[in-house]
Design a protein that fits this description.
Length: 336
């Protein structure tokens, strides 16, 4: 009997740990059926096949696990292993992750590309230092004002009930400087807020407005890019380290390739979504160049205060703005 017991113990000790199965529970605000979820489900299927079923990914889409803060809290207590988090939400992990989402920084996507080529890695490295692994950033697109009355200047914004994400100190300060009192709500409550009249103006990328059905409750889109939006899938590093080295390599390779694809596809989808909004009767309005410059000046004033207060990292903001100015100078040289 002791010999048999010893043999069983030896067999257990010699059994490779890589044969143990692991499930990564991932939450996202993206509804099922969106292109994001289709790509992620395809990636999960590939990972399961390539690891012979040792690694599976279970998704919780449509915000069923709550907003970004709720998801991060559940990751920290082990209820989830990861989540798709927006750039603003990532600031709860790594404050500098919000740098791209600062208002009125970019005028076009060419400026975005010039910055991201240099600074994406810095954001990903910053998240890892805080114990979270990102497999790449995916473009959300430019956020535009969507409202029930045309917005062309700061004057007619003061009568609007403008939504900002819960905990968004940067936009709260910017609107306060303009004499506007925004209404903070979790992302999951925005549609209800529009339906009840609690809010009547939102900022959203076209694909987000359609995916979350916000576009059904607004009539106008202001054609000024307010902020650049992005998201990433973050997974707790400790959860990944429980996988074998070979399985981690499969997860990393597959998800990094998936995020390259999502990033490219979202840009195409936003172009199509803008056209879809116009077809559905939403009217596009354009403020004057002077008014756009006025908004940019207000944003600079707000950011200067936030920088001096230490809320925005001065070094990263300077680096981003330098890259943007270099791109603008290069473009001005090219233009005869």
């Amino acid at each position: 009997m002791p010999r048999m017991l010893n043999a069983l113990i030896l067999l257990f000790l010699l059994t490779p740990l890589s044969h143990a199965s692991s499930t990564l529970k991932i939450a996202t605000l993206a509804p099922d059926g969106t292109s994001w979820m289709k790509e992620m489900r395809a990636a999960a299927k590939q990972i399961k096949q390539e690891t012979d079923g040792r690694v599976t990914i279970r998704f919780y889409p449509g915000g069923v696990m709550g907003n970004d803060n709720s998801v991060l809290r559940k990751i920290r207590i082990g209820q989830l292993q990861g989540g798709a988090i927006t750039g603003g939400g990532l600031s709860a992990i790594y404050n500098e992750a919000q740098i791209y989402t600062l208002p009125f920084q970019f005028r076009n996507l060419q400026e975005v590309d010039a910055v991201r080529r240099v600074m994406d890695k810095q954001i990903i490295d910053g998240l890892q230092k805080e114990g979270f692994i990102s497999f790449g950033l995916s473009e959300g697109g430019f956020a535009y004002l969507l409202s029930n009355s045309p917005v062309k200047s700061t004057e007619n914004m003061r009568a609007l009930k403008i939504w900002i994400p819960e905990g968004d100190r940067i936009n709260a300060n910017m609107f306060k400087a303009l004499g506007i009192s925004p209404i903070p709500l979790p992302l999951t409550d925005v549609l209800t807020g529009l339906q009840t009249g609690l809010i009547d103006t939102i900022a959203s990328a076209p694909i987000g407005a359609i995916a979350l059905q916000w576009h059904t409750r607004v009539n106008y889109l202001t054609q000024v890019p307010l902020a650049y939006l992005y998201a990433t899938l973050v997974v707790k590093e400790k959860a990944l380290m429980k996988l074998s080295k070979a399985d981690r390599a499969v997860v990393k390779r597959t998800l990094e390739a998936t995020f390259v694809s999502i990033n490219q596809q979202n840009r195409k989808d936003n172009v199509q979504a803008l056209a879809a909004l116009k077809r559905q009767g939403i009217q596009f309005v354009s403020p004057s160049p002077d008014q756009q410059l006025a908004w940019e000046r207000h944003a600079r004033t707000t950011l200067e205060k936030l920088r001096s207060d230490g809320i925005v990292n001065a070094r990263m903001l300077n680096r981003m703005q330098t890259l943007i100015q270099q791109k603008r100078q290069d473009e001005s040289v090219k233009t005869p």
